């Protein structure tokens, strides 16, 4: 293992979410202020009146708690347009009708998706002369009632959005503050079944009061309406809203980016004790299918949300969705975890070094167990049936909810989880366990960089976790086309008894001329159960083909690194980091001095080069890039294998470039590390200007 530098803090991650959502708002041409600042000056808008007697919101609350009212006994499922359209032109009647049609045609309705919801920007900028909301006639030429009727005609339910403020977040339409009773009645008259109630432009009015007033206004309509509180977790609604709304957002807005999804998961997961039938934690709507994450990442997103009993509101335009997207959203076995009638949110059993184990109790006594790998390398993650909360039993059925296959275990629940992946099992103390094949835990070790032109060793290990023998076990490791991969020890065994393992050593060498970079080997394990059922497992094993820099002096930006992580956007070559996309930086400049060559990083960052014992020194001019307008504070470090060989000390946006040089003789790898100097990583655009190796 290479030494790990703790680079991120929870605070820092939250800031990423804030920064990302700010970026989104900017992209949509809106005002980007921190959520807490999204209020205006107080107005004197008088509150409208409940139809019968005008009561104070607080008094009404304590006298007649509205909830539980039997709604949202399981987390709401459906669709909301926001994550795919924001206020774009695609958000219109055709889209909403199209989604309702697809819910029916593609079986999503049958899978449990029910609500078809509108988000911000459905109304005109101003109310009419009677104070009523007016639908945007370009988007919804036939009005909202007709649209709700259409959705209802499909056997689905219809949802709408407004803000507990004077205007909505996109500033596009009026909010309901001071108009709660009138707006609620208008929604009910249209046939609305679900209201998302946002928090922007709230004029500093107490959140509890605002959300309770709307709860009472909805109740006064007499129509059952699911009430979704969207105040981003600012006022800890989990502590007071079980009696106010059916669900409450726990975080700022999600964006279609891995870091955003993971940081939201981390805030929402510890709130498990507060969730239950009729009152759910809401970590925001799904991004599955929107294109900013891989399918593996989207499967993790969907698995984690289901484990957390989160609302499952599809946030992609299903009219354009791929089959892979449908396959994720329509995984009925994972949905069943989310919708389990016991209504418990999964608990985090373990989290260590990005390896997470979650367990969710289910109504029939089973447990759902998720093994989530936050890291960018495959990781072995494991727990036991006992730790997961299952009763003592001689064996357990393990149902893999993504592969839809059964095995059994004597108690261990473990596997190698791909980078950013999640294994989800339904675990049962089922007496029928002997009818399922034993679970085999297969993994690979020693997959460090492989130098082109040399030979490396990899060990694979396959262990029987079950109580019955695995028969005719055969393992195979395959390389990319042209690579030599040869076993050094046996690759099979006739019988692998319970608890025993098959270890195989392999020699691998990349095809001559292989370009340095990431490659994948495929490790396959094939076996039979005592009853003859055949099981095949495959695992991708990443390897890096590397080559030491050539003799002489080379710029780091002209070499291929082994890995690079960055706090914001990707590391750039010969440019500053710029924004979140590749290639969006500016020419490198520190303290007014331009540099033609270098690496544009952003704290926390770590860039690893393979030097293969061939290099003598590393040198660079380091500093905060001028694009931050003097903001940002960072430290730069150079590591040769496990040893820190140079350090810049704290540098701010006002400092000139500082020369850093280090002897790296004999080192196999050199890591260039940027830390945030302890103050969070806002504006930490860090340049390794003129960075070069002498080899
Ligand atoms: C806020 C909410 C989002 C979305 C937008 C609409 O940011 O948190 O979910 O509804 O407003 O403007």
What does this structure look like?
It is built from 11 helices and 38 strands. The longest helix has 18 residues, at 10-27. The chain folds into 4 domains: 76-338, Aldolase class I (TIM Barrel, Alpha-Beta Barrel); 347-435, Sandwich (Immunoglobulin-like); 440-546, Immunoglobulins (Immunoglobulin-like, Sandwich); 553-694, NPCBM/NEW2 domain (Jelly Rolls). Strands 7-6-5-4-3-2-1-8 form an 8-stranded parallel sheet. The chain has a 6-stranded antiparallel sheet with strand order 9-10-11-16-13-14, covered by helices on one side. Helix 2 crosses helix 7 and helix 8 (258-268) runs parallel beside helix 9. Helices cover 17% and strands 32% of the residues. The protein is α+β, with helices and mostly antiparallel strands and 695 residues long. It binds alpha-D-galactopyranose (GLA). Residues 82, 119-120, 168-170, 198, 230, 253 line the site of alpha-D-galactopyranose.
Question: Which small molecules are bound?
Answer: alpha-D-galactopyranose
Structural class by SSE content: alpha+beta
CATH class category of the largest domain: Alpha Beta
Mean pLDDT: 91
- Any idea of the CATH topology of the largest domain? TIM Barrel
Return the domain count. Answer: 4
Question: Can you tell me the CATH superfamily of the largest domain?
Answer: Aldolase class I
Compute the number of helices: 11
Give the strand content.
25-35%
Question: If you compute it from the alpha carbons, what radius of gyration comes out, rounded to the nearest whole angstrom?
Answer: 28 Å
CATH architecture of the largest domain: Alpha-Beta Barrel
Low-confidence stretches: 1-46, 53-65
Distance between the termini: 25 Å
Largest sheet: 8 strands, parallel
């Amino acid at each position: 293992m290479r030494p790990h530098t703790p680079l991120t803090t929870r605070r820092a991650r939250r800031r990423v979410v804030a920064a990302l959502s700010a970026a989104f708002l900017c992209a949509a041409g809106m005002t980007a202020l921190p959520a807490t600042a999204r209020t205006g000056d107080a107005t004197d808008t008088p509150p409208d009146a409940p139809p019968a007697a005008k009561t104070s919101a607080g008094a009404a609350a304590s006298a007649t708690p509205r909830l539980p009212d039997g709604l949202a006994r399981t987390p709401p499922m459906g669709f909301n347009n926001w994550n795919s359209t924001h206020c774009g032109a695609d958000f219109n009647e055709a889209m909403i009708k199209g989604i309702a049609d697809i819910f029916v045609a593609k079986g999503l309705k049958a899978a449990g998706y029910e609500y078809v919801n509108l988000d911000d920007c459905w109304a005109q900028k101003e109310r009419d002369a009677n104070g009523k909301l007016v639908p945007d006639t370009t988007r919804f030429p036939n009005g909202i009632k007709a649209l709700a009727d259409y959705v209802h005609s499909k056997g689905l339910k219809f949802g709408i959005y407004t803000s507990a403020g004077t205007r909505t977040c996109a500033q596009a339409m009026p909010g309901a503050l001071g108009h709660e009773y009138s707006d609620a009645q208008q929604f009910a008259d249209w046939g609305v079944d679900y209201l998302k109630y946002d928090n922007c432009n709230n004029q500093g009015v107490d959140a509890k009061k605002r959300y309770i007033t709307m709860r009472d206004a909805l109740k006064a309509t007499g129509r059952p309406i699911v009430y979704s509180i969207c105040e981003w977790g600012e006022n800890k609604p989990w502590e007071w809203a079980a009696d106010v709304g059916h669900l409450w957002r726990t975080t700022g807005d999600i964006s279609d980016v891995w870091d955003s999804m993971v940081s939201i998961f981390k805030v929402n997961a510890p709130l498990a004790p507060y969730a239950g039938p009729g009152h759910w934690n809401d970590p925001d709507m799904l991004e599955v299918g929107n294109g900013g994450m891989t399918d593996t990442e989207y499967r993790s997103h969907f698995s984690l949300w289901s484990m957390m009993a989160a609302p499952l509101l599809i946030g992609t335009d299903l009219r354009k969705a791929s089959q892979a997207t449908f396959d994720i959203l329509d995984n009925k076995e994972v949905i069943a975890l989310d919708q389990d009638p016991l209504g418990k949110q999964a608990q985090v059993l373990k989290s260590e070094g990005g390896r997470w184990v979650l367990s969710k109790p289910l109504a029939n006594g089973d447990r759902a167990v998720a093994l989530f790998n936050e890291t960018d390398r495959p990781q072995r993650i494991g727990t036991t049936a006992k730790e997961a909360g299952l009763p003592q039993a001689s064996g357990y059925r393990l149902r893999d909810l993504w592969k839809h296959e059964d095995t059994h275990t004597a108690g261990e629940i473990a596997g190698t989880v791909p980078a950013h992946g999640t294994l989800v099992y339904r675990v049962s103390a089922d007496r029928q366990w002997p009818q399922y094949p034993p679970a085999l835990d297969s993994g690979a070790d020693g997959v460090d960089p492989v130098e082109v032109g040399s030979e490396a060793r990899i060990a694979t290990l396959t262990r029987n976790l079950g109580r019955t023998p695995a028969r005719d076990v055969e393992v195979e490791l395959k390389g990319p086309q042209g690579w030599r991969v040869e076993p050094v020890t046996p690759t099979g065994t006739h019988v692998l008894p319970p608890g025993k393992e098959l270890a195989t050593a392999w020699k691998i060498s990349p095809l001559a001329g292989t370009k340095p970079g990431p490659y994948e080997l495929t490790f396959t394990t094939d076996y039979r159960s005592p009853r003859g059922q055949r099981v095949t497992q495959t695992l991708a094993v990443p390897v890096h083909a590397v080559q030491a820099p050539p003799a002489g002096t080379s710029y780091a930006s002209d070499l291929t690194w082994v890995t690079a992580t960055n706090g914001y956007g990707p590391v750039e070559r010969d440019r500053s980091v710029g924004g979140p996309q590749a290639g969006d930086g500016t020419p490198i400049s520190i303290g007014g001095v331009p540099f033609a060559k270098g690496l544009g990083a952003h704290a926390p960052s770590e860039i690893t080069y393979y030097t293969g014992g061939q290099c003598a020194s590393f040198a660079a001019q380091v500093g905060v890039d001028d694009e931050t307008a003097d903001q940002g504070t960072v430290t730069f470090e150079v590591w040769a294998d496990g040893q820190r060989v140079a350090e810049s000390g704290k540098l701010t946006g006002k400092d000139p470039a500082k020369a850093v040089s280090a002897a790296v003789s004999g080192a196999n790898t050199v890591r260039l590390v940027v830390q945030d100097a302890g103050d969070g990583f806002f504006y930490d655009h860090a340049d390794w200007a003129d960075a070069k190796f002498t080899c």
